[in-house]
Design a protein that fits this description.
82 residues, mainly alpha, 0% strand
């Protein structure tokens, strides 16, 4: 299961976005100043964006590594006889 980076990354991403949403709800209902609330929410949104980029990067690196191994093997065994 851990080799399916789309599934693992997707579940992890959705879990962390859910936790961020709960944190945003707590921040919104807190007694902080409007400016502090806004800044904390912006930080959480930026973290969600960085998380999304890191999940895509992780998935693409694993995909490249997995597929380049098979491409190298095919290249080694293919012969061009003219």
């Amino acid at each position: 299961m851990l080799e399916d980076t789309v599934l693992v990354g997707g579940i992890g991403f959705l879990t962390l976005v859910g936790l961020a949403w709960l944190a945003m709800e707590k921040i919104t209902n807190s007694a902080l100043s409007a400016r502090a609330k806004r800044l904390l929410i912006y930080v959480l949104i930026a973290l969600i964006g960085l998380l999304a980029v890191s999940v895509f990067s992780w998935h693409s690196e694993n995909w490249k590594e997995k597929n380049m191994k098979s491409a190298k093997i095919e290249c080694l065994f293919s012969t061009n006889i003219a």
